[in-house]
Design a protein that fits this description.
By secondary structure, the chain is of the alpha+beta class. The protein is 27% helix and 23% strand. The protein has a single domain (2-217), classed as Rossmann fold (3-Layer(aba) Sandwich), CATH 3.40.50. The chain has 5 helices and 11 strands, in the order βαβββββαββαββαβα. The strands form 4 sheets. It has a 4-stranded mixed sheet, sandwiched between helices. A 3-stranded antiparallel sheet has the order 2-5-6, covered by helices on one side. Helix 1 crosses helix 5 (198-212) and helix 2 packs across helix 4 (171-181).
Length: 244
């Protein structure tokens, strides 16, 4: 199961858009919840006039049986104080559906990095203990950087370290709950700032692809992903027509 966190720049959601569009995934259902702001809109992955008027809502499920892949796309923000009920419902569904693994695509405020996080790549990962046993060695081979813990009391004590994901929305709660419930979950995230976050989405989805090889890697890593038709309306598109 792939899913985004509703986090800074909506980077996870944009990256999930690229996965759904590129793999031509089929919508198979909805994730009904009262924890998200209600919304409805046209089909964001329309390919022709015939399917452009299909309706989409705030949380939908897509499937690709050939890759044993399910994607939950979230399109609206959370209602205040509804983070925990949503996490409980989601993880209950994950266990009930017997999802082997969960991958959460997320982001965190670039301006709140500590000194160590300013070094090197802006990409980080987290693995629950159950998934660490299975793929921890591969992450080392890929030379990926695990999300650093930061001082709980900066400037006062540097010995007490905690996981801190500012701007990450439900990311930390989902991860910590999955650790305690024995769920195999990976979090892939990028440090970024609000703005035109389409480039951040490409970087994050390429990071995912480096691990799971969803599509064949190319020299021009942007051209391997199919841009959803709805992106024409984002930030004045900001993308050359050749990408559509």
């Amino acid at each position: 199961l792939f899913q985004p966190a509703v986090s800074v720049g909506n980077v996870g959601q944009l990256a999930i858009d690229l996965v759904i569009s590129t793999l031509d995934m089929t919508k198979v259902g909805y994730f009904y919840t009262d924890c998200l702001v209600p919304m409805v809109g046209n089909n964001p992955y329309a390919t022709a006039e015939e399917n452009s008027t299909e309706l989409s809502i705030n949380a939908e499920v897509y499937s690709l049986p050939s890759k044993k892949l399910v994607v939950l796309q979230i399109r609206s923000p959370f209602i205040k104080n509804k983070y925990r009920p949503f996490c409980e419902a989601l993880l209950s569904w994950v266990k009930g559906s017997r999802c082997a693994r969960v991958v959460v695509l997320s982001s965190s405020h670039a301006y709140q990095r500590d000194d160590e996080q300013l070094l090197g790549t802006p990409l980080r990962y987290l693995l629950t203990p159950d998934l660490e046993k299975a793929v921890g060695g591969l992450m080392q081979e890929l030379n990926w950087k695990e999300m650093e813990k930061v001082a709980a009391y900066p400037g006062i004590s540097e010995t007490d370290k905690v996981l801190h994901i500012p701007g990450g929305g439900i990311t930390k709660l989902l991860f910590t709950e999955s650790c305690s419930k024995g769920i195999q979950m990976a979090v892939l995230l990028k440090f970024c700032s609000e703005g035109d976050n389409i480039p951040d989405a490409f970087v994050l989805v390429n990071y995912l692809n480096e691990w799971l090889q969803l599509v064949k890697s190319e020299v021009n890593s942007s051209s391997q992903w199919k841009i959803p038709s709805s992106w024409r309306l984002l930030f004045g598109s900001g993308l050359p027509p050749a990408l559509f």
